[in-house]
Amino acid sequence: MKGSREFKGNSLLEDVSDYVAIDLETTGLDPMYDDIIEFGAVKVSNGIIIDKFQSLINPGYEISPFIATLTGISNEMLASAPSLVPTLSKFIEFLGNYTIVGHNVNFDINFIYDACVNNLGVAFSNNFIDTMRLSRRIFSEEKHHRLSDVSKRFSIGENVEHRALSDAIKAHECYESIKKFLAESNISFSSLYPHTTYKHSSVRAKDIVPTIDVPRDTSPF
Fold this sequence. Notes:
This protein has 221 residues and is an alpha/beta fold. 34% of the residues lie in helices and 17% in strands. The longest helix is centred in the C-terminal third of the chain and has 21 residues, at 164-184.
């Protein structure tokens, strides 16, 4: 059941040296109806990846041709993959109490939160940092803030594979590039905070689907 996610962590605009960058691949956009089919994560200390986690998940049914084409994950690949619950437990153990980093990571956090509540009986409360949100704050004049756009902006390479581990690594690289850019520009993370507290923003399809651009952020948070 999809709840209010009252114990969900906060979205931060901060410089942290130790964190876990994550990405999920899913069967769709809504945690109520869709399922996780891949976990990817990298544990980072002082800008260096020190550990990795990756696993496909068998959702128990065939995924759509669109998702298969988008991710490169086939039904044949998922047929021999483990089920959600044991892998979710390992994934949560890997995340520990670290701050989570990701691109449009609120989407991933919602899936993880609901999966934890529904399958493990616990809430997922790690705070998180969204590189998309940071990009919108820093480059407000830009129209597009997809992972490929941010990667290109920092000359990381605009190719996005839509596989969980590679995209988690790219989110890590974007975050480190953003931190370096702010430091070199003498811009503090605290100056990026709005006057009102941001928490639990909604997810838009335009933030996920790679062929559709994300509109400029004009929200008050």
